[in-house]
Write a structure and sequence with these properties.
This protein is an alpha+beta fold and 134 residues long. Helix content is 22%, strand content 38%. β2 and β3 form a beta hairpin. The chain is elongated, with a radius of gyration of 21 Å.
């Protein structure tokens, strides 16, 4: 789990002052508290989406709660047939990420990592696609 080390340091300092000692258990307690309260919901392979037709950013690595490495993906149209053995007239179209024409890796800042996370890229805001905070 990736959490904010600055917050863990401040929690450890607070525990040292309250308890009055500098045991190593305070560091472990501070890390447990940070894993629960200061970790982001973003994980590897989460997709961020922007616009119509959508453009995608796929998370390749989470460096911290505020920084991720992303892979830029264009979109393509996919057809899903809803009725079997009736022909191709019954179905619907979906936008899907095009993995064959992916772009370069880029390091991006993650905004609001504890609430509804999004990534800014110039004037575009990519919102998390595959989580309950959509």
């Amino acid at each position: 789990m990736v959490f904010d080390k600055r917050a863990a340091l401040q929690i450890r300092i607070g525990l040292n002052r309250i308890i009055g000692n500098k045991n190593s258990i305070n560091t472990q307690i501070a890390n447990l508290i940070c894993e629960y309260s200061h970790s982001t919901i973003v994980k590897k392979a989460f997709m961020f989406e922007y616009g119509s037709p959508p453009q995608y950013l796929c998370v390749a690595r989470v460096h911290s709660p505020f920084w991720v490495t992303c892979l830029r993906l264009p979109s393509r149209i996919a057809f899903y047939q809803t009725a079997i053995n009736i022909g191709t007239n019954f179905g619907h179209l979906h936008w899907k990420p095009d993995w064959l024409h992916c772009g370069n890796y880029c390091k991006k800042r993650l905004f609001d990592p504890y609430g509804k996370p999004f990534i800014k890229c110039r004037n575009q805001q990519y919102y998390l696609n595959n989580h309950k905070y959509k």
